[in-house]
Amino acid sequence: MTNGRLIVLTGPTAVGKGTVEAKLRADHPEVWVSVSATTREPRPGEVNGVNYWFISEEEFLAGEKAGEFLETAVVHGMAHYGTPLKPVEEHLAANIPTILEIDLQGARRVRERAAELGLDVVYVFIAPPSFEELKRRLIGRGTETPEQQAKRLETAKVELAAENEFDVVIVNNTVDKAAADLWQVIATEYGL
Predict the structure, then answer these.
(1) 175 annotated among ligand-binding-site residues
(2) One GO molecular-function annotation for this sequence (predicted)?
(3) 106 is an annotated ligand-binding site residue
(4) Residue-range definition of the domain harbouring residue 64
(5) Any idea what the CATH number is for the domain that residue 15 is in?
(6) Is 171 part of any known ligand binding site?
């Protein structure tokens, strides 16, 4: 069904997944990163089709029922999120390096569906150098209250414990090195 292998990128909160992915894309613009769909309202500055595909709950549920998503989730009991399947399949069929950046639960759902969909997947975990460094990064970014930080750190402990579920673990000591390591995985999988 597809030529390339889907790269599923996961890691705990504040590990720098998005920063590593942005560096990878800056160095290798040929890499395509899937854009998720959501039923939540756009935040200031977010662009439809760039940050997310913003769709109605009715559209989302109809697409979910029709099998149009690789994986879906309800986040915080309110908004639906999901990975549209068709663009992923199209990019893989064209042998375009394809990444899905997703949380641990999403990665597990992809694992459940991959075989039935004929998808070949490489699961990559971005890890912090240490839990203390992860904590420092989370607090240092200053975007969450102390209560939110505590909750995210508890979640991060659970996510870190799942590291052995992944095919490849990349330690994010520096963004440049982690992005280069991620490119090595992609280059190997795609014969680049």
Answers:
(1) no
(2) kinase activity
(3) no
(4) 6-190
(5) 3.40.50.300
(6) no
